[in-house]
């Protein structure tokens, strides 16, 4: 299975924000930084090679953030891929910063967000960001209206093409849509954690892409047994079954599995050609 179809387009396409065609099977660059998403990679040449191989495989949707490293991952992307292919869509996140101890801290004031957008532009070597997700950290002084409003202003200035939300619920989505169009929601969702099922369906109805992070999250014994059996039946890996289930779960789901290994990258891309039966999808969902 892992070598039958190494073409990201096999997973299908999605119109991001209604005007940016992307492969539904993209690539999340977070793991290219050092341990804990902090500091430089242990193998810089390997990290650059993974990014180049992703593009070779037809991936044109790469998820990143300037707080990965911090700064490290964006700098790797620019070194590996700039000048960028015409159809490459780079998606980033703002709303957090890294402490000197590698902690994740909120950075959601309008001033911090404006600075973060300019940092992403500079380190990626871009004049406009294709999509910026606002990462909500759940801090008590967090104001979605102020934060999303600041990003909407940058969008009006032409520095951002589309906006999205991360770590958001349906109420956040409704509030943000009153301020500016929302192109994606990026939340936790996988076979083991389906608490966001209603929001996945809501996004599909609204034409909003839903991007699950940690798409290969673990599962309990019953689910693990089913995944293992279905994987064996298809000659696939269990990770590929998890990704294939997500692609079938909703046409709005856009995948960004991350890895620092070319072999794992190729395995993930090949999952786009794995066709689960309706019965298998129902069993896994249950």
Explain the overall architecture.
The structure is a single chain. This protein has helices spanning 44-56, 72-81, 110-124, 144-156, 170-177, 197-206, 221-234, 238-249, 262-270, 278-285, and strands at 13-16, 20-23, 27-28, 61-63, 89-94, 96-98, 104-106, 129-135, 160-166, 184-188, 209-213. It starts with 12 loop residues before the first strand and ends with a helix. The chain is α/β, with parallel strands linked by helices. The strands form 3 sheets. Strands 3-4-5-8-9-10-11 form a 7-stranded parallel sheet. It has a two-stranded antiparallel ribbon with strand order 1-2. It has one domain (8-219, 245-275): TIM Barrel (Alpha-Beta Barrel). The mean pLDDT is 95. The chain contains 10 helices and 11 strands. The longest helix has 15 residues, at 110-124. Strand 3, helix 1 and strand 4 form a beta-alpha-beta unit. Helix 1 (44-56) packs across helix 2 (72-81) and helix 3 (110-124) crosses helix 4 (144-156).
Q: What is the CATH topology assignment?
A: TIM Barrel
Helix content bin: 25-40%
Question: How would you classify the helix and strand content by structural class?
Answer: alpha/beta
CATH class assignment? Alpha Beta
What's the average pLDDT? 95
Strand order of the largest sheet: 3-4-5-8-9-10-11
**Percentage of residues in DSSP E strands:** 15-25%
Q: What is the overall shape?
A: globular
Please count the helical segments: 10
User: Distance N terminus to C terminus?
Assistant: 25 Å
């Amino acid at each position: 299975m892992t070598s039958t179809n190494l073409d990201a387009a096999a997973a299908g396409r999605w119109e991001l924000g209604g005007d940016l065609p992307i492969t539904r099977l993209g690539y999340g660059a977070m793991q290219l930084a050092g341990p804990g998403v902090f500091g430089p990679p242990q193998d810089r040449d390997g990290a650059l090679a993974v990014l180049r191989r992703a593009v070779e495989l037809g991936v044109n949707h790469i998820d990143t953030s300037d707080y990965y490293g911090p700064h490290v991952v964006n700098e790797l992307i620019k070194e590996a891929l700039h000048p960028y292919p015409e159809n490459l869509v780079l998606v980033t996140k703002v709303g957090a910063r890294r402490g000197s101890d590698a902690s994740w801290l909120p950075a959601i004031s309008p001033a911090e967000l404006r600075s973060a957008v300019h940092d992403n532009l500079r380190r990626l070597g871009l004049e406009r960001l294709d999509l910026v997700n606002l990462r909500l950290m759940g801090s008590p002084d967090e104001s979605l209206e102020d934060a999303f409003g600041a990003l909407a202003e940058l969008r009006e200035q032409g520095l951002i093409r589309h906006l999205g939300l991360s770590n958001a619920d349906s109420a956040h989505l409704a509030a943000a849509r009153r301020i500016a169009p929302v192109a994606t929601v990026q939340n936790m969702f996988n076979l083991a954690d389906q608490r966001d099922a209603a929001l996945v369906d809501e996004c599909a109805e609204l034409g909003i892409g839903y991007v699950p992070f940690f798409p290969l999250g673990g599962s309990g014994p019953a689910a693990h047994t089913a995944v293992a059996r279905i994987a064996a039946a298809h000659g696939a890996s269990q990770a590929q079954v998890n990704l294939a289930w997500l692609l079938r779960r909703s046409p709005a789901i856009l995948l960004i599995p991350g890895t620092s290994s070319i072999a794992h990258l190729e395995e993930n891309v090949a999952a786009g050609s794995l066709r689960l039966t309706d019965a298998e999808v129902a069993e896994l969902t249950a």
